[in-house]
Amino acid sequence: MNAGIVIGEEQGRPVQIDIEELLATRLLVQGNSGSGKSHLLRRLLEESAGLVQQIVIDPEGDFVSLADAFNHIVVDASAYSQAELEALAVRVRAHRASVVLALEGLEVEQQIRAAATFLGALFDAPREHWYPALVVVDEAQMFAPSAAGEMAEETRRLTLSAMTNLMCRGRKRGLAGIVATQRLAKLAKNVAAEASNFLMGRTFLDIDMIRAADLLGMERRQAERIRDLERGRFVGLGPAISRRPVTVKIGSVKTGKQVAAAGLMPLPEARKEDMAALLTESLADDIATRSPPPPPRPVPSAETLGEAMAESAAAPVAKADGPAPDTEGTARKVLAEMAAHPDTPLQTASTLYQAFLALCRQNGVHIPPMDMNRFRREFAMAMAGLDRLTENDRERLVGIAEGISDDVLGPYLVIARSTLEGRDAPDDDELARAYGTSSPGRVRRLLDYLEREGLIVVREVFGGGRKIFVPALEAAG
């Protein structure tokens, strides 16, 4: 098999990269925005797609279109938890799948953590899966910064460790790092220094030109050559490219959007007065057409719910002749009505119990159908929406909830019910309502408590969501 690919030409002569040599020696690509760096990476990936496994860390979504023409699998990092990304990386190595890890749906620090997690799992794969693979990291200055910047120190250590392992120790594991950066000065030196092959594009800052010239073995006065490069031209050097510096014009690509440079457009010919009118007239009408945010719903007083529900029970209710009322059935009906009331979660247990008794009397049940302790548990089950489940699932949840304390029973059952319904997790509003709060912070502390108690397992997804598992349900099978 021919291991050489053509990436472009120098004065009409083809310039090749030896992929076998590249796997052993790694590559650094540098170029300012607009220099053609992403185009170069795409050309390299397209030409070598049939020769070697490819793993692309893509923070901007530039390379997902590779899947349109090749066998690349796009992995949207925002849809997976940390543990799932680690498991995915292990499978990528085991099955030699070419993948693009798409990070554009995440915030910057989440992108960094997701990439570090994925790279770390690739590096730690079992020895029997150490197949050769190109690992392309675009915008590498994000993942291997030379200074701490604004990211958390823990995140910086995690990502630097992953990138250092890739570039310093990845060769023995079959991983050939290809890192691309806009700024050499912002890339950690121990990461850049491990590359033996270089493709340097246009750059203007002196500090970047000097570092590029040093890496290429040029005298510093020759650094001006790098500043004068045209878009799409790179100076290449290294055992996989050429033993002497060559200036290569990168060839065409099959995938991706062909973006033309923006040209000049005629300005509108409106008079100054007309343009001012377009900008300032009828601003009030524009504002009026926008829907204002709804005002927050006022929190009712502690007595409001009981008064609203027991209003019709104020007058004495005549005893009706006929069969005795169905006490259990009536109690369940009343509990369901109370659970559906929008103000219910904001009331104290004693207020709710009094409202419950009043509504039972209104429905002909004059003897309390349950005491306060049982009411709290039955009401938590009603708030959790267990009536949506089949009788078997309802009994199953009631069984596993026997040892759960009353104050967290409602949200625990909401989580368990969502699991039975096939959802990853209930939303925060559902949990807050079952917990009797409107505070997101209390919901987070509740989940922490339930996890510490071993009642649930929470996996945060990089996209901002979460997946919650209930061990008792899995044990009950």
Q: Key features?
A:
single chain; two-stranded antiparallel sheet; Rossmann fold; elongated; alpha/beta; 15% strand; eleven-stranded mixed sheet; 477 residues
Structural features, described:
By secondary structure, the chain is an alpha/beta fold. The chain has 2 domains: 247 residues, 3-Layer(aba) Sandwich (Rossmann fold); 173 residues, no CATH class. Helices cover 44% and strands 15% of the residues. The chain has 21 helices and 13 strands. Helix 14 packs across helix 15, helix 14 packs across helix 16 and helix 16 runs parallel beside helix 18. The chain is elongated and about 100 Å long. About 4% of the residues have low confidence.
Quaternary state reads: single chain
Distance between the termini: 52 Å
Cα shape: elongated
Can you name the CATH architecture of the largest domain? 3-Layer(aba) Sandwich
Beta-strand percent range: 5-15%
Mean pLDDT over the residues: 81
- CATH fold node name of the largest domain: Rossmann fold
Quickly count the helices: 21
- What structural category characterises the helix and strand content? alpha/beta
